[in-house]
């Protein structure tokens, strides 16, 4: 899996880097967008407050260790929330239609996660665009292990990608 992650990253991170040199670009099949994030205890607590998911694996290090984990876990759905953020940042007004997820490896508080969203299919329908994306998250500080993957579908108002500001 590490080799697959490195192959995926080496092919697609370069594509996402070239987007930063222009203010907009038309989305094409194969284009990849990325974002990194480190999840904190505060993020986990805020997510639990909204979702009401107070599973002790997220809050009690001893419970997590007894269950076979190295440390407290970040909610998988919190990690997967990076995908709609990436899409809506580049395509304001995008409507998220579906998301499949396979959880492959745990994410612990403090892990740096790289999320990649890659366009795999697109078609026009009634002056909007239906786009399928491959979605993957990697743990950067653990040899780029795939932590979750899946596929998303979104309806985009257009195919012109906005560039996030440097602060994002």
Give a quick precis of the structure.
With 168 residues, this protein is an alpha+beta fold.
Gyration radius, in Å: 17 Å
Percentage of residues in strands? 35-45%
- The helicity comes to 25-40%
Compute the number of helices: 5
Structural class from helices and strands? alpha+beta
Distance between the termini: 29 Å
- Which blocks of ≥5 consecutive residues have pLDDT under 50? 1-22
Can you walk through the features of this model?
This protein is α+β, with helices and mostly antiparallel strands. It is 29% helix and 36% strand. The protein has helices at 2-18, 41-51, 61-66, 76-80, 82-90; strands spanning 24-26, 32-38, 95-103, 112-125, 128-139, 145-156, 160-162. The strands form two sheets. The protein has a five-stranded antiparallel beta sheet with strand order 2-4-5-6-3, sandwiched between helices. A hairpin with a 2-residue loop joins strand 4 (112-125) and strand 5 (128-139). The model is unreliable at 1-22 (pLDDT under 50).
